[in-house]
Amino acid sequence: MTSAALRRARPEDERAFYDICLLTGDSGADASTLYKDPQLLGHVYAVPYLRFAPDFAFVLEDAEGVGGYVIAAPDSQAFEETLEREWWPILRQQYPDPANIPREERTPDQRMINLIHHPNRTHDDLQSEYPAHLHIDLLPRMQGGGNGKRLMYTLLDALEDVGCPGVHLGVGGRNENAVGFYRHLGFQQLQAHPWGYTFGMSLPRRL
Question: Which parts of the chain span the membrane according to its record (predicted)?
């Protein structure tokens, strides 16, 4: 664990977003051996938030650089429409759709590319009560000492300030530390899936 300063993310943090997303992309562990293209995870789960929802992107930074971030979209369905117009078309030209490859035969890269062509959509039931969604990733040196809570509370404050009524997130079932972290913060399990869980929190928080 390291002492770190918390600040709003800046455009020049993009490289760090790609790196951190990859280095935490295997249920919190390093995913760099799983993907041939090191930018794929960041294309889907990190950098579009920095580009299109910068008011809800915060980082932890120490002498080694940025080592963690929290990102969110306050209106998930509106964010998804923005990406459909301004983000996915460029990437779709770069990465061919693997639709002709059977799902069970796809590589990790191809599974991620499939999300570029067929991104997940927020269901109306989540959107009505928990319209925001978030991601948080910290490198090992940033974990512990309350750094994750600092990031989360800063983000939740920002969402409350714009009147957001609730936020949701997805977490893999193998990532037991993250599941415990979210429960400790007060997130409630909304759904269980074969891959993990959807958690939600109503805003403003009842402290």
Answer: none
Read off φ and ψ for residue 202, nearest 5 degrees: -80, 145
For the chain, list the domains and their CATH numbers: 5-163 (3.40.630.30)
Q: Which residues contact 177 (CB under 8 A, 6 or more apart)?
A: 28
Alpha-helix runs per DSSP H in the chain: 14-23, 40-45, 47-52, 76-86, 88-94, 108-117, 124-129, 147-161, 176-185
- In terms of phi and psi (left: phi > 0; alpha: psi -120 to 50; beta: otherwise), the region of 28 is left
Structure tokens at 11: 């455009």
Q: pTM to 2 decimals? A: 0.95
Integer CA distances (angstroms), 194 to 57, 105, 136, 171, 198, in order: 29, 19, 21, 11, 11
**What letters, b where the CB count within 10 A reaches 16 and e where it falls short, cover 165-186?**
ebbbbbbeeebeebbebbeeee
pLDDT digits (tens, 9 = 90+) for 15-49: 999 999 999 999 899 999 999 999 999 999 999 99
